[in-house]
Amino acid sequence: MSHFSDNYYELRYPISTDSTIGLRNAQLGAIHAIASFNSLSKKNAGIVVMPTGSGKTAVLMMTPYITLSSKVLIVTPSVMVRGQIYKDFTELKTLKKASVFIGGISPPSVYELKKKYSNDIQDDVITSDVIIATPQCALSLSENNIKDKFDLVLIDEAHHVPAQTWQQILLNMKDSTQMLFTATPFRMDRKELKGEIVYTYPLSMAYRDGIFGEVRYIPIEEAPDKDMLIAKEAERVFFNDRQQGYNHFLMVRTDTREKAKQLEQLYQNETELTLKRIDSSMSYRVVEQCISELKNKNIDGIICVDMLGEGFDFPNLKIAAIHTPHKSLASTLQFIGRFARTNAENISAAKFIAMNDDELIIENYKLYTSDAVWQEMIVDMSERTIRKEEEIKNNLGEYIRNDGSLSSDDTLSLHSIRPNCHAKIYHISDFNINGVFPKICGVGENVFRNLSDNTVIGIGTIKNRPIWSNTEQVLDVQNFLFIIHFQKETSLLFIYSQMKSEIDYQLIAEAFTTNYNKVPRNEIHRVLGELQEFEMFNTGMQNRFAESGESYRIYAGSNVASTIDPATGRMYSAGHVFCKAVADAGPVTIGYSSGSKIWSSSYLLIPEYVKWCDSYGLKIANESIKVKTNTNYDLMPLPHRLKNFPETVFFCLFSDRTYSSSPVVMKNPSEVSDTILMDAEIKIISISEMEIQVEVSILGFSDTIVCRVDGTCYCAESTIFLKDGRNRVSLVEYLNNYPFIFKTTDDAIIEGHEISIGEPNAIIFSSENIKSIDWGRYKIDIRIEFGEASEGLRAIQDGLEEILIQQDDFDYLIYDHGSGEIADYITIRETDHKLEVVLYHVKAMGGKRYNSDLGDIYEVTQQAIKSIIWLKSRGTLLEKIRDRRRSDHCKMKKGHFQKLEKSLKENKLFTSRIVIVQPSINRTVDLPSKYQEILAATNFYIKNSGRVTEFGIWGSGGELDSSITNPYQQVDMQHA
After folding, report:
1. Which of 236, 402, 580, 586 has the fewest Cβ atoms surrounding its Cβ within 10 A?
2. pLDDT tens readout for residues 432-468
């Protein structure tokens, strides 16, 4: 007999509940499947597929008992995982915690094989019930006759098995029962994972059961200084999450130890994050100490080289900064699974930050992989051909300092400077070559000017106090390169700057010109002119309808233009593009973005860089150039320069960047609140041809933002301040980086200095959307939205609640009133296969007569459009409801939240409707044309969002419409 067979009858299978700890569905299914497989004749290894975080270790530990094994070999992918399983098995900690074992059961004899097998450890191996080893040590054991004593081999993280070492272990121990555990039973190299899959627990069920949480991808637009941009965004997201009360930690991921060291220095110099670096060269004790510091909250995160990707359980690890993506889908899923765990307090969605260069392919599930074409393209794209040395020297010799000395007199040779091709471009009316760089650049006297080609070079030195020092002593010194070039023929100003915020570019431009404007996309698009054989690697498209959700879609990979069709062209406008093409001189890479930027993959000498700018400047200014890529990208409409604001503007919302990671509002100069910017109320005050005034209100503060036609914002007196990452900025500063998006009643979108024209003829008003309620029947005061009404009457919200309860055709009714609300009332009906959500937005009548006051409909229609964001998915709605409940909102009027939470995790069809409740709208009274425009545009935008099936209006006029009493039935009848 053996330890495992002796204790077989001690096994219990308690089911985990909300009040007791036991085995999860995944664990119960897996262990019974293993028992079933073990009862049959076994020719192959058994494969158990369980998502990361679903409790695979407990199943692995139960397997020797359920199979009545005598001696077990467990092969783990790393020393760290080996140590974790050894510690767990020697105490049976996980199984006892889950009540699989109760009482005083003794653990098996466990031996951790830390070196290759030899005769001097033979007795330890023979007398132990369980041997735990990494592949090389396990291989040495499997090559010895002692292997015959093992009747069970368990492989953890079995997607490694096709590797030669792992495969040889299984081949050497083919007479033993073999069970393979993995979350990803496939590999990018398509090598077979041999065996019979005995149990698979799908990721959708893991999400439904609360094991696998929400994940978000936060893209970084392709640009130089990739690591810097990712680091800054990671810091911003980290501090925003912490300020919202989430106990999140960060992992910085790269692929080499040398790169990890560079990133360690970068994060230390450029952020206020406290990180530690770990890699496989470090001892287990060092790694264990680092993990301990992480769990004890002594550090903010870790910098890893393929560490903690497998077998590491720390659910608070929620933010990943991907500097180098994994090369296989299997590794990527393992990696994501580490961040999607849900078994911790005060955690939210996992966030993955990466740049959308073509090392990154965004698949349907937003998984990372590699792309062979891009791999070829990025292999050393630096420019290697140097023009004649004499031509270069002649040009560089024309640069002079402020004191008149030549650049050749300097220790630093301009010949050694090779900027990567990147430029921010402005239209300007004048150029002052003697302009002085702003102080933030730290240039001082390190300025070189070339009068013949209107180019200025500045080399800045920025000195900072280290983040770890509390003195004023300056130790951190950084150097920055700036190149200012004015193309006189086109009146275009090109700025190369390693400081890349919008305000930095503006300050530099103001130093050399008095008037500057960004280049609109229809003009900058001309950089693609006169090229052939296009291959699009990265494209971005602005969604015209999906408010604040997928407002910007990015495709990356090879030949991404093929994904665009005529329908896409109607729904989206061109955003950015990066491509490879062929010019007369040979292959080139070129990209442009809505930020008035162009870039390439090349690194050039300064004279070559100036010529690069000039060549594309001539294209941008050439109105005769008609770009034809002969790809489906030609189907995309292009935004144009905004010359004046149309009077048809009726709606305003924040940038998509605000909705992906919203900054937190400051209570006072030194204290942050728990309120995020996206909960602010936005109201358009006035519209003129040259500016729009917008009132933003939150936490009792109110700022009037003046949005100018050139895309800039102004505020006479700022009272709203934000904590965005670690930076404290005013609202107007934030909006200058991430401008408002305005929409018009004739299907145009305005963002910054650009306007995108849609299909105005598609917006048609229909009074059929207006349903009439007999408010008097319910004794409702239509001029009171909520609270106390006139004697004998009640507020609209109270009356609406009675109407909804009377219809009684839904499972859940939620009341959510207040700043940041989803809607005043939310109803949810659940069937076997579908969840149907209806949002009701309520406003009282303010005008003297029906259909007389535009104010009656402006606010409620804007709230309706804004609420689309919460209908993006079941998970998005659930997360918002949770947030509102934490702030004592979202009160359940019918149904139980725990049941609703479970329902929203199930894989059911998710449909939604939006209804505005405004008694001032009367279908029997003539509607002014402006009323019709606003209501028609609201209906058009909402129904084209892709997430809402119907927009309805509950107004006045006549008897109660019976179809109102059952909105779900109404939808069903329409589908029927």
Report:
1. 586
2. 999 999 988 888 888 999 999 999 999 988 776 665 6
pLDDT attached to residue 355: 80
Q: What pLDDT does residue 864 have?
A: 92
Do you know the residue count of the chain? 976
CA distance 956 to 770: 8
Q: How many CB atoms lie within 10 A of CB 740?
A: 21
Question: What is each CA distance from 973 to 234, 268, 910, 969, in whole angstroms?
Answer: 48, 61, 18, 6
Say if residues 861 and 916 touch (Cβ distance below 8 Å). Answer: yes
Q: pLDDT, tens digit, for every residue of 501-534?
A: 888 898 999 999 998 988 988 899 999 999 998 8
* Nearest-10 crossing angle of helices 257-270, 226-243: 60
Residue pointed to by tokens 């952020």? 271
Residue with tokens 């006169």: 530
C-alpha distances in angstroms, 839 versus 771, 786, 914? 16, 17, 5
Q: Which residues contact 365 (CB under 8 A, 6 or more apart)?
A: none
Ranges of each domain in the chain: 3-201, 215-370, 389-519, 524-602+624-640, 649-762, 767-975
Q: Which residue has the higher pLDDT, 394 or 756?
A: 756
Top-tier CATH class for 3-201: alpha beta
**Per-residue 3-state assignment (H helix, E strand, C coil) for 18-79:** CCCCCECHHHHHHHHHHHHHHCCCCCCCEEEECCCCCCHHHHHHHHHHHCCCCCEEEECCCH
Task: Determine the Cα–Cα distance for residues 308 and 741; give it in Å rounded to an integer.
Answer: 41
Fold for the domain defined by 767-975: Restriction Endonuclease (3.40.91)
Beta strands in 172-305 (DSSP E): 177-182, 196-200, 215-220, 249-254, 275-278, 301-305
String of DSSP letters for 828-897: EEE-SSEEEEEEEEE----SSSTT--THHHHHHHHHHHHGGGGGS-HHHHHHHHHHHHHTT--EEEES-H
Dist. CA 851–CA 37, nearest whole Å: 72
Pair 21, 99: CB distance under 8 Å: yes
CATH hierarchy code of domain 215-370? 3.40.50.300
330: pLDDT strictly greater than 80: no
- Closest by alpha carbon to 913, among 833, 970, 845? 970
Sign of CA dihedral 757, 759, 761, 766: negative
Same fold: 215-370 with 767-975: no
Looking at the DSSP assignment, which residues form a beta bridge with residue 713? Answer: 707
**Which H or E run contains 772?**
strand 770-772
**Band of residue 972 on the pLDDT scale cut at 50, 70, 90:** very low
Residue spans of alpha helices (H) in 101-187? 122-127, 135-142, 164-172
Mean pLDDT (the chain, rounded) = 83
Residue 774, SS3? coil
Residue found under tokens 């407002």: 551
Task: Give this prediction's pTM.
Answer: 0.63
Residue 663 three-state SS: coil
Cα distances (angstroms) measured from residue 253 to each of 212, 334, 389: 21, 13, 42
Distance CA(143)–CA(63), nearest Å, equals 24
Distance separating alpha carbons of residues 359 and 326, to the nearest angstrom: 9
Q: Which residue from 123, 119, 97 is spatially nearest to 111, judged by alpha carbons?
A: 123
Burial class of residue 974, CB neighbours in 10 A (0-12, 13-18, 19+): exposed
Distance CA 95, CA 92 (A): 5
Label residue 500 exposed, middle or buried (CB < 10 Å: 0-12, 13-18, 19+): middle
Give 941's Cβ-side CA count (13 Å radius): 32
Backbone angles phi, psi at 806, to 5 degrees: -65, -35
Query: What is the model's pLDDT at position 68?
Result: 94
Contacts 24+ apart (CB under 8 A), 186-193: 186/159, 186/329, 186/330, 187/159, 187/162, 187/328, 187/330, 188/327, 188/328, 188/329, 188/330, 188/369, 188/370, 189/162, 189/328, 191/162, 192/162, 193/47, 193/158, 193/159, 193/161, 193/162
Q: For residue 6, which amino acid is it?
A: D
